[in-house]
Amino acid sequence: MEFTMQIHGISRDLIDLLRSVGADRHPLEFVGVLREEDGIIHELNLLPGTISGEHSASLFVDMMPLDLHVVGSAHSHPNGVIRPSNADLLFFPRVGRFHFIIGYPYGGNDWGCFRADGTRVDMEVIG
Ligand SMILES: [Zn+2]
Description:
alpha/beta
Protein backbone atom coordinates (compact mmCIF):
# COMPACT_ATOMS: atom_id res chain seq x y z
CA MET A 1 0.00 0.00 0.00
CA GLU A 2 1.29 3.42 -0.95
CA PHE A 3 0.51 6.30 1.38
CA THR A 4 0.39 9.43 -0.72
CA MET A 5 -0.43 12.23 1.75
CA GLN A 6 1.38 15.32 0.50
CA ILE A 7 3.94 16.61 2.97
CA HIS A 8 4.32 20.39 3.10
CA GLY A 9 7.17 20.59 5.58
CA ILE A 10 8.42 19.96 9.09
CA SER A 11 7.56 22.14 12.07
CA ARG A 12 10.30 24.35 13.46
CA ASP A 13 9.50 23.04 16.95
CA LEU A 14 10.23 19.49 15.80
CA ILE A 15 13.54 20.45 14.12
CA ASP A 16 14.54 22.17 17.37
CA LEU A 17 13.54 19.05 19.34
CA LEU A 18 15.57 16.77 17.04
CA ARG A 19 18.62 19.01 17.52
CA SER A 20 18.26 19.04 21.30
CA VAL A 21 17.70 15.26 21.53
CA GLY A 22 20.80 14.81 19.36
CA ALA A 23 22.83 17.04 21.66
CA ASP A 24 21.44 15.31 24.79
CA ARG A 25 22.34 11.83 23.52
CA HIS A 26 25.75 12.82 22.13
CA PRO A 27 28.11 10.96 21.70
CA LEU A 28 25.43 8.28 21.39
CA GLU A 29 22.95 8.13 18.53
CA PHE A 30 19.17 8.42 18.71
CA VAL A 31 16.61 6.97 16.31
CA GLY A 32 12.94 7.77 16.07
CA VAL A 33 9.97 7.68 13.74
CA LEU A 34 8.29 10.89 12.57
CA ARG A 35 4.53 11.47 12.37
CA GLU A 36 2.61 14.04 10.37
CA GLU A 37 -0.70 15.77 10.89
CA ASP A 38 -2.37 17.66 8.03
CA GLY A 39 0.80 17.29 5.95
CA ILE A 40 3.13 18.80 8.54
CA ILE A 41 5.74 16.55 10.14
CA HIS A 42 5.38 17.44 13.80
CA GLU A 43 6.04 14.54 16.15
CA LEU A 44 8.97 12.30 17.13
CA ASN A 45 8.53 8.86 18.68
CA LEU A 46 11.90 7.66 19.95
CA LEU A 47 12.88 4.04 19.34
CA PRO A 48 15.25 2.00 21.47
CA GLY A 49 18.56 1.02 19.88
CA THR A 50 20.40 2.32 16.84
CA ILE A 51 20.09 1.72 13.12
CA SER A 52 23.16 -0.48 12.83
CA GLY A 53 23.57 -1.70 16.40
CA GLU A 54 22.91 -4.94 18.21
CA HIS A 55 19.41 -3.84 19.29
CA SER A 56 18.49 -2.48 15.91
CA ALA A 57 15.67 0.05 15.57
CA SER A 58 14.44 -2.01 12.59
CA LEU A 59 13.22 -4.71 14.98
CA PHE A 60 11.04 -2.21 16.80
CA VAL A 61 9.74 -0.73 13.54
CA ASP A 62 8.66 -4.21 12.44
CA MET A 63 6.71 -4.64 15.68
CA MET A 64 4.94 -1.27 15.46
CA PRO A 65 1.25 -1.24 14.61
CA LEU A 66 0.49 0.12 11.15
CA ASP A 67 0.27 3.89 11.55
CA LEU A 68 -0.56 5.87 8.41
CA HIS A 69 0.67 9.08 10.02
CA VAL A 70 4.25 7.77 10.19
CA VAL A 71 6.08 9.42 7.29
CA GLY A 72 9.70 8.62 8.00
CA SER A 73 12.52 8.64 10.48
CA ALA A 74 15.03 10.84 12.24
CA HIS A 75 18.37 9.90 13.73
CA SER A 76 21.60 11.55 14.74
CA HIS A 77 25.13 11.25 13.38
CA PRO A 78 27.49 12.06 16.25
CA ASN A 79 30.35 12.12 13.70
CA GLY A 80 28.75 15.18 12.05
CA VAL A 81 28.45 13.65 8.56
CA ILE A 82 25.05 14.66 7.13
CA ARG A 83 24.82 11.79 4.65
CA PRO A 84 23.08 8.39 4.84
CA SER A 85 25.31 5.43 5.71
CA ASN A 86 24.89 2.03 4.06
CA ALA A 87 22.99 0.84 7.13
CA ASP A 88 20.71 3.89 6.84
CA LEU A 89 19.86 3.00 3.24
CA LEU A 90 18.71 -0.45 4.38
CA PHE A 91 16.69 1.04 7.24
CA PHE A 92 14.97 3.95 5.46
CA PRO A 93 12.65 2.01 3.11
CA ARG A 94 11.17 0.14 6.08
CA VAL A 95 9.99 3.32 7.79
CA GLY A 96 8.62 5.73 5.20
CA ARG A 97 9.41 8.42 2.68
CA PHE A 98 11.34 11.17 4.50
CA HIS A 99 14.41 10.66 6.64
CA PHE A 100 16.18 13.30 8.69
CA ILE A 101 19.81 13.08 9.76
CA ILE A 102 20.85 15.46 12.53
CA GLY A 103 24.61 15.88 12.89
CA TYR A 104 27.07 17.11 15.48
CA PRO A 105 27.25 19.98 16.57
CA TYR A 106 23.44 20.02 16.19
CA GLY A 107 23.20 23.66 15.12
CA GLY A 108 20.45 25.26 13.06
CA ASN A 109 21.82 23.96 9.75
CA ASP A 110 23.28 20.66 10.96
CA TRP A 111 20.58 18.46 9.45
CA GLY A 112 19.41 17.11 6.13
CA CYS A 113 16.36 15.35 4.76
CA PHE A 114 16.63 12.36 2.41
CA ARG A 115 14.33 10.06 0.49
CA ALA A 116 14.37 6.34 1.16
CA ASP A 117 16.90 5.89 -1.67
CA GLY A 118 19.26 8.42 -0.08
CA THR A 119 18.69 11.39 -2.42
CA ARG A 120 18.55 14.73 -0.69
CA VAL A 121 15.21 16.54 -0.36
CA ASP A 122 14.63 20.25 0.26
CA MET A 123 12.25 20.13 3.21
CA GLU A 124 10.55 23.35 4.23
CA VAL A 125 10.65 24.35 7.89
CA ILE A 126 7.29 25.72 8.96
CA GLY A 127 6.60 27.99 11.90
ZN1 LIG B 1 22.82 7.17 9.95
